[in-house]
Amino acid sequence: MKTRNEIIKDLEDRLFLLNFMIADEMDWDEKFGQISALESCIEKHKEGWTLEQFKEHLEKHKSENMYGDYIDGFMSVLKRNVREMEGELVGSE
Fold it and tell me: Is the pTM of this model over 0.70?
């Protein structure tokens, strides 16, 4: 299981790479959703959020029934963050 600092480092690395990644087939709305979620997760980890708080945050966003590429990108990062905190992901995926 990763420590909070390891998770923050992974999130910061992913944010750095995503900011500089350019591809013809990239959906910009989804990319901006991912960037927003990564920034949000990093900040919340630094504030000391628990796994339960992240799960509640994820469920709140799910219940809003919003859709679109931006939301898809945002939600994918939130889901991965919860899985990492639960210890389901090891290394880069």
Answer: yes
